[in-house]
């Protein structure tokens, strides 16, 4: 098994429901421990592996569109845990965010279909203060992708919306350049263009 995968064993029919539940709980305990452990030589079972999983998640570029298996497994664990967690200060990744953003029914549906893309769209929304930086970073990454993407059917979350934003910015920049050229040609001062999105008189 990959060193960055989370063996939650949720899809193994040979395991009984109780065995699967115990495996999930074991993985959750390992993730919660690894989030707080600062001992590089920690010999607790699963600690080093979960540290690698968490480190992988931080740098993974495929997690936003749900195409990374390791990140998908970690998110599934976090959702499974958050559905049952009642702690106010829980060390599990995203636990407070998930509980705040999703009602119990929505979370149950999310776990049922394992819709990682929808989950990421929710946690990267700008409303919670703790996800604001992540949302800004996501916008920057998506805009950079959209500026170069030529696939009209691109499935990356937010690509089509960002393409429209990029086109609008380019159009405004072109209008500004043309206005400057006219001003230089006729030796007249340039009138500042209104901010992007404002109405013109």
UniProtKB/TrEMBL annotation:
Pfam families on file: zf-TAZ
Catalytic activity annotation: L-lysyl-[protein] + acetyl-CoA = N(6)-acetyl-L-lysyl-[protein] + CoA + H(+)
Domain of life: Eukaryota
GO cellular component: nucleus
Zinc finger annotations (TAZ-type) as residue ranges: 17-98
One of the GO BP terms on file: regulation of DNA-templated transcription
InterPro entries (alphabetical): Histone_AcTrfase_Rtt109/CBP, TAZ_dom_sf, Znf_TAZ
Compartments where found: Nucleus
Main localization (coarse): nucleus
GO molecular function terms noted in the UniProt entry: histone acetyltransferase activity; zinc ion binding
Catalytic activity, EC: 2.3.1.48
Limits of the TAZ-type domain: 17-98
Keyword terms, alphabetized: Chromatin regulator, Metal-binding, Nucleus, Transcription, Transcription regulation, Transferase, Zinc, Zinc-finger
PANTHER family: CBP/P300-RELATED, HISTONE ACETYLTRANSFERASE
Record-given protein name: histone acetyltransferase
